[in-house]
Design goal:
Length: 232
């Protein structure tokens, strides 16, 4: 009788012969889940380390700045580059919105005719970059043209031969949803600053004082020493 009872006992669980395909699948699924978790952690660290220089710039600008406030207006919350901005060159070639990331951008907004104050802002934009000295390679200049008016050949040639300068036509409605002027001002009245992650974060006063704008820009560029991509 006792021998009969022993013969009815199930095989040990750790018997390799008893492992089923279903059991192996569960082990493989667990391993895959662990790999997925590790991959997400690694990706999170990569994103954090890439953003760290910009975070340092913001900390310096908002917290460490000796004057306690910026000359220009800080935009809070910041506004991301719109996917429907539809930038294109003057020749009509489409430019990916992602191509506008990776460098600080000092932006002038105006129509293609660009006379008077528009030309003055473009000149100030160029001078401000040069005033940054060794930090200037971190800043690109960008003229966003909000209409289809032609740009004079003289002005186009002068700007296109200027270092770190881009001229792009954009969708006017998308632009107006992204950048906005101070109350009572036109969109064209300001200089706008966009960070390397593509976020609009600063706006100059209308008719700005270049020396005071330079101090704002200088603080950001110096704090941003880890993010240096000269020459897009």
């Amino acid at each position: 009788m006792s021998g009969s009872n022993f013969s009815n006992q199930p095989a040990p669980v750790n018997d390799p012969a008893q492992l089923t395909v279903h059991g192996l699948g569960a082990v493989e699924a667990l391993t895959q889940a662990e790999r997925t978790r590790r991959g997400r952690w690694m990706m999170g660290w990569v994103v954090f380390l890439c953003a760290l220089p910009v975070i340092a710039s913001y900390f310096t600008f908002y917290v460490v700045q000796p004057r306690g406030k910026a000359y220009g207006e800080l935009i809070t919350p910041t506004r991301d580059l719109p996917a429907d901005l539809a930038p294109r060159t003057l020749a009509g070639q489409a430019v990916a919105v992602e191509a506008l990331r990776g460098q600080w951008l000092l932006i002038v907004v105006d129509g293609g005719s660009c006379v008077g104050d528009c030309e003055k802002r473009l000149f100030m934009q160029r001078q401000l970059r040069e005033m940054l000295g060794k930090e200037r390679d971190k800043l690109d200049k960008l003229w966003l043209i909000s209409d289809e008016a032609p740009v004079s050949e003289t002005l186009r040639q002068a700007l296109e031969t200027t270092p770190a300068m881009q001229l792009l036509r954009v969708d006017g409605a998308a632009l107006a949803r992204w950048l906005s002027p101070a109350e009572g001002q036109a969109l064209t009245a300001h200089l706008y600053l966009v960070d390397p992650l593509g976020r609009w974060m600063w706006r100059s006063p209308a008719q700005p004082d270049p020396s005071r704008v330079k101090k704002d820009l200088g603080l950001l560029m110096k704090a941003n020493s880890g993010w240096d991509r000269p020459g897009r």
